[in-house]
Every structure is written in structure tokens, then in C-alpha cells.
Specification:
With about 500 residues, the chain is an alpha+beta fold. The chain contains 16 helices and 16 strands. The strands form four sheets. A nine-stranded mixed beta sheet has the order 2-6-7-10-1-11-12-13-14. It has a three-stranded antiparallel beta sheet with strand order 5-4-15, with no helix packed on it. Helix 13 crosses helix 15.
């Protein structure tokens, strides 16, 4: 059997976070709006209207291009991409083709290394990142058996909502550098993190704010020429991307093994059946009849503006992870914290407020106890009532042996609900840790006197009894005894 190599290139469309649409003043915040209420003559393509370029959309595209190490064009041109579909009011899409805003960039991902312990870094080329407008949305209503009129002949209805038409889209196209579904997944996750860090897009695939199309082919290992490329659409989640790519690669290999040809078509991913299905014969760029948009001038970009935007770039995920590792975190914890910019900022602020606390301790509390509470409540870090300063104060109480770990967790639970300061909760619940040796010695003596049989077992060599006795002392202190002091006093009592 021939062994094959997979070739994948991705096209990602991310809706930009702007107040208005790409070429008109209609609100781009259409998510909860009634159908066809965020529209105007421009985005409905009524006769005689003229588009105007959204400066903020251009700015956010340049920011993304800089983060992806792209060259920013001093002049780019909008073009008409001609095709006819019910969700495209003009009969063409205003996009960019020959002269995109950003080109020749790259993004690095980690890939598994077969013979090495640590993952390897692989650079994925970014061919272009350009601006365009989104289409409207079609909703297909399939007729049920009860509706005989629609089920006989017509088959259903298609509803058109133009609220989304004209919303700014950032399209990012890779080189065919990806070699597996896992690599495609790693690329998309990294890209999503970057777009969110920049604040240019929510990049939420499940809500349609980031959409992916994949160009997939296979070739015998050692062959230089690419195989026939198939485009796969309808990939609206990371899970769909992996499943669709794995299926399509297996489908193409099976065809070649049977001596058949792979046909260049556009496939859709059928989530329910778990397979790709043919949608149409694949168009080439000539089919779209690109030509410069006559109603828009070339977009001129000043170098000073680009450099100003470059200076505004935040610390991006890779740089943040590297800094966290340098500050003492392991790679896994650093990656978890850096995955969300708001979480990373919260961690940084807590470390700063803690003044000398080990960053590893802060990370453990955030990724452990705080994430536990957030997951249970179904909230993000932005809505957490505990300020970084209050969190740092709680950790300081633990470090100063004023409360023990179990008490600290109880205090954190109360802080999460109320947002109050930890010292107030400690006093209210009476959780101040007891470290006084005289007070604890009396309690240890009571436990030793109460359990003579267990004491005898311990002294005869059954050392596991020690932890049980330690638990009895802690119970008598209602959990407020300093564990280290209690352990020392109990060991001393058992030696006597």
C-alpha cells in the first residue's frame, strides 16, 4: 500500500469588532436583533448607493497583520468578487484580491516530535490577511410531513436575513504548510488566542465569529507535485475541523487506492452523518471575475500610522508564556494562564500585589481553586468579584500562618460569592489559625489520653496511625490548628 502525505491550507474568516459595518453606518452588533433590522440602502445594495471604508476595520486588520509578522502594504485595493447567491445582495462581494492589506507573514505552532520529549516549533506561512465584507444569512426551513403543500414539490423555504451583510471580515489565508488535522487544530487555537489578545475579534467559532474553510489534498510520500485540492466548508467548531479533515483525507486516499481520481470540488461537512458531501464544482479565481472596485479609491497606509499601531501591540501569547516560564512557572501552567488575556492579566496583577509571593503558588491557586469556582458558576474571569489585591491578601494570610489551607479555601469560596476582603471573612467565621504551642499541647495531650489503643499500635510500629491521630487533633481544633505545629507536638508526645 502506498503511503501518503497530507497537504492542508486554511482560510479563516474572523468578524471584526467594530461598531458599524464595513461600508455603511449600520450597527454591526446584530446578534440579538430581529431579522433585517440592521440594514440600510448601502448594505441592501439599492441603486445609487456608494460604500465608505470603515477606518477602524482597516486598523484592526493591520494590527492582526503585524501580530502575524506580515508586510503591510502602503497601498491596497478593494475588488469585486462576482458570484450570485441569495445572501449576497449586490451579486458581488467587496473583497481584496491582487493587492491585499497584509501579506507574507507567519505563525508558529507546536507539533509533536516523534523522537523527542518536547514538542517542536513549526512555522506556518500566512499568504495574506485582507479585508472584506460578510454575506447575509440563509435559514433553510425543511417542510415537515404535516405540511403537504411544501413537502410536495417545493421541499421547504429559505429565509434571508441581511443583518450580517456588510459586517467587516478579516480573511487570513495560510500557505499549504499544514500536514495533519492536529496541526490545523493547533494553528486555529493559536490564531484564536492572538485575535482575542488584540481585541480585534471574539473569534468564537460556535457563534460564527470565526469560520474556517480547508483546502485538502494528498500525495504519495516523495512526490513533489501536490495532489488535487478539495475545499471543505461548514467547519464551525474545532471538533468539526479535526473530524472533517480526518474524514476527507481518508476519503481521498481510498479513491486513489482504488485507482480512481480525486475531483476538485467544494465539499460541505455534514455534522450529523460525520462525512463530507459535495456542494458544487470548485470555482477558480477566474470564475469570480475579480476587478477593482470602481466606487472605492485605493487604501493608502502611512508608515507612521503602521508604526504607531506596532507600538500598541500587546504582549502576545508566546511572549507571555516565555516570560511566565522565566518567572518560575512550568510550561503547562504558563500556557493555561496565557490562553486568555484577561486571566493572564489577573495573574500578573495578583503576583504584583502579593509582593514576593512565589508566582508558582499564585498560579496554583488561580488554575486550581479559582478555576474550580469559575467552572461551577459558569463565569469568566471578567465577572469574578475577587480583585487581584484581595486574592493576594488571602495568599499573604496563608503565608503568614494566620490561616491554614483548608480555611483559606473556605474564605475563597465566601470571597467568590460576596467579593469581600479575606480578613473580614476570617474574623467573621473565626478561622484564625492557632499556632500557640501551649494551647495546642493541651489538645494533643487530650487526644493521646483518649486513644491509648491507637497509641500502642503506633509505638509497636504501625506508623500509619500517626496521620489518623493528627486528624483527631485537627478536628478538636475545628481545623484551626497550625498543621506544622500540631504535627511537631504530636510527634513529641508520642516519643515520651
Amino acid at each position: 500500500m502506498t503511503h501518503y502525505e497530507t497537504i492542508i491550507g486554511l482560510e479563516v474568516h474572523a468578524q471584526l469588532l467594530t461598531t458599524s459595518k464595513m461600508f455603511c453606518s449600520c450597527s454591526a452588533d446584530y446578534a440579538s436583533a430581529a431579522p433585517n433590522t440592521h440594514v440600510c440602502p448601502v448594505c441592501m445594495a439599492l441603486p445609487g448607493v456608494l460604500p465608505v471604508i470603515n477606518r477602524v476595520a482597516a486598523e484592526k486588520t493591520v494590527l492582526a497583520g503585524l501580530a502575524l509578522h506580515c508586510t503591510i502594504a502602503e497601498a491596497s485595493v478593494f475588488a469585486r468578487k462576482n458570484y450570485h447567491y441569495a445572501d449576497l445582495p449586490k451579486g458581488y462581494q467587496i473583497s481584496q484580491y491582487e493587492l491585499p492589506l497584509c501579506r507574507d507573514g507567519w505563525l508558529e505552532i507546536e507539533v509533536e516530535a516523534k523522537a523527542e520529549v518536547e514538542a517542536k516549533v513549526k512555522r506556518i506561512g500566512v499568504t495574506r490577511a485582507h479585508l472584506e465584507e460578510d454575506t447575509g444569512k440563509l435559514t433553510h426551513v425543511v417542510a415537515g410531513a404535516a405540511d403537504a403543500r411544501l413537502s410536495e414539490g417545493r421541499g421547504g423555504q429559505t429565509l434571508v436575513d441581511l443583518n450580517r451583510a456588510g459586517v467587516p471580515l478579516l480573511e487570513i489565508v495560510t500557505e499549504p504548510d499544514l500536514r495533519s488535522a492536529d496541526e490545523a487544530y493547533a494553528y486555529l487555537v493559536k490564531l484564536q488566542h492572538i485575535l482575542r489578545y488584540l481585541g480585534v475579534s471574539t473569534a468564537d467559532m460556535e457563534r460564527g465569529a470565526m469560520r474556517c474553510e480547508a483546502n485538502v489534498s494528498v500525495r504519495p510520500i516523495g512526490q513533489a507535485a501536490f495532489g488535487v485540492k478539495v475545499e471543505v466548508k461548514n467547519l464551525n467548531s474545532f471538533r468539526s475541523v479535526v473530524q472533517a479533515l480526518d474524514y476527507e483525507v481518508a476519503r481521498q486516499i481510498a479513491l486513489l487506492e482504488r485507482g480512481e481520481q480525486v475531483i476538485q470540488v467544494t465539499m460541505g461537512w455534514d455534522e450529523e452523518r460525520g462525512r463530507t458531501v459535495v456542494q458544487r464544482v470548485k470555482e477558480s479565481s477566474d470564475d469570480y471575475r475579480y476587478f477593482p472596485e470602481p466606487d472605492l479609491p485605493p487604501l493608502a497606509i502611512e508608515r507612521a500610522w503602521v508604526e504607531d499601531l506596532r507600538a500598541r501591540l500587546p504582549e502576545l501569547p508566546d511572549a507571555k508564556i516565555a516570560r511566565f516560564v522565566k518567572e518560575g512557572l512550568d510550561q503547562k501552567d504558563a500556557a493555561v494562564l496565557a490562553a486568555d488575556r484577561a486571566v493572564a492579566d489577573y495573574f500578573d496583577a495578583t503576583v504584583k500585589a502579593a509582593r514576593g509571593q512565589d508566582p508558582k503558588t499564585v498560579a496554583n491557586w488561580i488554575t486550581g481553586e479559582l478555576f474550580r469556582l469559575m467552572n461551577a458558576a459558569g463565569v469568566g474571569i471578567e465577572t469574578v468579584k475577587i480583585t487581584p489585591a484581595a486574592f493576594a491578601e488571602l495568599l499573604s494570610l496563608v503565608a503568614a500562618n494566620q490561616i491554614n489551607l483548608n480555611s483559606a479555601k473556605k474564605v475563597l469560596d465566601a470571597m467568590f460569592v460576596s467579593g469581600r476582603r479575606p480578613d473580614e471573612i476570617v474574623q467573621e467565621l473565626g478561622l484564625t489559625q492557632v499556632s500557640d504551642s501551649d494551647a495546642l499541647t493541651g489538645i494533643v495531650s487530650q487526644v493521646v489520653a483518649k486513644y491509648p489503643d491507637e497509641i500502642a499500635k503506633y509505638r509497636s510500629g504501625k506508623e500509619s496511625v500517626f496521620n489518623w491521630l493528627l486528624g483527631q487533633v485537627m478536628r478538636e481544633t475545628r481545623g484551626k490548628g497550625n498543621p506544622a505545629v500540631v504535627k511537631e507536638l504530636l510527634a513529641q508526645a508520642l516519643r515520651e
